[in-house]
Amino acid sequence: MSGFELLERDGLARLGRLGTPHGVIETPALLPVVHPDPARQSCPAPVLRERFGIRALITSAYITWRTPPLREVAEREGIHKLLGFDGAVMTDSGAFQQHAYGAIEVGPEEILGFQARIGSDIATVLDVFTEPDASHAEAEAALAATAERTRAARSSFPGLLAAPVQGGPFADLRARAAAGASEAGDLLAVGGVVPLLERYRFRELADVLAAVRPSLDPGGAVHLFGTGHPMTFAWAALHGVDLFDSSAYHKFARRGKLMFPDGTVSIDDVREPICRCALCSVTPLDRIAALPPPEREPHLALHNLLVSFEEVARVRQAIRDGTLWELVERRAGAHPALRAGLREATARPGTFLATEPESRRAFREVSSESLARPAVARFLARMRDFVADRPLAREIPPIALTPEYLSRVPARDRSDCPIAWNATTPLGPVPLELTELYPVGPFLGIAEFESPRSPRSPTDVSRALGTRPELDADLDRDWTEAWTERQLRTGLTWQYGRALADRLAPELRGQRSRRTGRLRKLVHGGSPAFVLGDDGVPRPTFRGAELLRANLPGDRARVVAADDAVPFVRHGRSLFSKFVVAADPALVPGSSALVVDGSGELLAVGRLLLAPHEMGRLRRGVAVRVTAHRSGGEDDGSPDPEDRDRGPPE
C-alpha cells in the first residue's frame, strides 16, 4: 500500500510525503536520472547525495539487466550498493528504450522480477509505449497489453509499484488507463509524453493531464515521466504532478547548455556573469567555457541540477503560500508553447475546480492569463446566479469598501426601496456588497498602479453621486450601518443560501475593524458567531456552527466523523481522512465545515484540507483541521497550532 500523505496544497498541487523502504520522499520532488554505471555518470549518486541532500533518484533496471557486470553486482549486493546511494531508488523497466529503439530483449515478468531481486524501492511495470500520433485502435491495443501487465505485476510484486498511465492522445483511453493504474499502483506514472515534452507540445500535454486527472486515485503519488526542464516544474505541479524525473541535466550539459527556469543558454554564448549560484560563484562561467567539453560537462550538469532543485523548492514554497498560479504564469513567459499549454489548461476550469481552494491570501495579476484562473471562473459563475433576481444596478467607480466611503453611498432611495450598486472591478461589474470577497477583495492588479480614476475621499463620492439627477436619495445621511447590514446578509447568502440568511441575519450584528473599517465579525448574543478575514468569507466559530447546525438542513456544510475519531475531534484534534464517513460534496479545500458524529451531534468546526471526493481515499493525513470544538469554548476561528494535526492513531 502507498505511504503517500498530503500535508498542504494549492489546488491540485500538493505537498506530501511518500514513504519508501529507504526513507520518506518529500513531494513535489525531483528524481535525477542516473546511469547505473557510475563510470558513465557525470554526477555520481554519492555526489548528489552529499552536495544536494537528495533522498530519491531513478535509474534504469533495463540497462542494469542487459549489462552483465552491472547485473552481477546488482543481484549480489543490490541496486543501492551498485549506485553507492542509501536513499530511495526508483527503477524504470525499459519502456523508453523500447520506444527509442523499437524493441528490447526482456519480457515484463522477467524485468519486474529483476527489480524485486535488486531491491528497488519503487519498481515500474514494463508498459507498451504509445506514440502521441498513434491511432485510436493502436493506442487501445497498447493500453490493453499494459493493463494486463499491470494487473499481473500487482499480484506478484509486494512492494511499491509504479503503474503506467498510457492511452496516447485519446481522452477516453487515458481516463480508462488512470482508473486501472489507480487500482493497482502506488505511484501513478503518466507515460507516453516524452515526445510531447521534447517537441514543446504543451497544449496536447494539458489535454492528457486533464483527461487523466479525474480518474487518478488521490491516495497515489503522481509521476510524470520526462519532466526534466525546470521551466516545466511549476506547470506540472499545477496539474497535480508530485514527482518529476530528469535526465535533461546531463543531456543538456553534454551539449554545453545551461538550464534556467526561464529557458536554456549555450555556455559558448555567455559573455556576462549571468549565474551566481553556489557553483558558478566559485568557478565563473567564462572559465568553464574555456575547458574541453569532457571537463566542463560535470560542472554544467551540477549547475543544471542546482537550478532544478532550486526551482522545485520555489514550487514547494509557492504551494505553501497559495501563489502557484502566479508562478506558473511567470514561467509561461519562458516559451510561447508553455503559454499555449497554460491557456489550454485554463480553458478547462472543471479540471481544477473540485480542489480549487475557497480563497487565497491574495490575488495578484501577472498576465492576461490571470483573469482566466479557475478562481475567477467560479466567482463569476456564482455571481451570475446571485444577481439573477437582483434589481437593475447603478454603476459606481471603484471605491474602497470602508465606512468613510460607504457612508456617502445611499443604500435606499427616498421611497425606502433598495438601491443596487455595481462597482467597477478588474473582473467587470460586481455588486458593491460582494467586493470584499475573494478574488475581488484581495485583487492586486495592473490598473491599480495606473492613473487613478476612483474617488479619493468621501466628499468625492458624494460629489460624483450628486451629479446624477436621476438619483433620488438622501446623500447627507450616514449609510454605514445600512451597508453593514447588507454585507452581513449578503455574506450569509453567498455562503449558505438566502433561506438561512433570512433566518439568521436579524439575530446578528456586524462589527467593523477600527483600523481598516472592514467588516470583521458577526456577533450573536455578545459573542462572535462568524469572523471574516481578508477573503471576506464569514467563517463560523463554535457558536456560529451551532446556529448553522440548527438552521442548515441535511448534510449541508457537514463532515461526518467515524465513531473512533469522535472523542478526539470533540477535544480539538484534527479529523484524519481514514475516519471520514461522509462529507457535503459542495465543499472545497479551505471551506469551513461542521464536523458531526453519526447522529448529527456537533463536535467541532474546521477547515478542509481535502476535497470531499478525496476523503477516505487517502489512507494517511488530515482531512479537516479543527478551528473550534465543543470542549474548548468560544474562539476566533483560528486553528490551534499545537493540536490541529493530532488525532487517533493512524
What does this entry look like structurally?
This protein has 650 residues and is of the alpha/beta class. The chain folds into 3 domains: 5-348, TIM Barrel, CATH 3.20.20.105; 363-472, no CATH class; 541-650, Archaeosine Trna-guanine Transglycosylase, Chain: A, domain 4 (Roll). It is built from 24 helices and 28 strands. Helix 7 (136-156) packs parallel to helix 8 and helix 21 packs across helix 22 (498-504). The protein is globular. It starts with a strand and ends in a 21-residue tail after the last strand.
Per-chain topology:
Elements: E1 5-10, E2 13-20, E3 23-27, E4 29-34, H1 45-52, E5 56-60, H2 61-66, H3 68-77, H4 79-83, E6 88-92, H5 95-101, H6 108-117, E7 122-124, H7 136-156, E8 160-165, H8 171-184, E9 187-190, H9 194-198, H10 202-212, E10 221-224, H11 233-238, E11 243-246, H12 248-254, E12 257-260, E13 263-266, H13 285-289, H14 293-321, H15 324-332, H16 336-346, H17 350-353, E14 363-364, H18 374-386, E15 394-396, H19 403-406, E16 421-425, E17 428-431, E18 443-444, H20 458-466, H21 480-496, H22 498-504, E19 509-512, E20 519-524, E21 527-532, E22 538-540, H23 542-551, E23 558-561, H24 566-570, E24 575-576, E25 580-583, E26 592-596, E27 602-608, E28 622-629
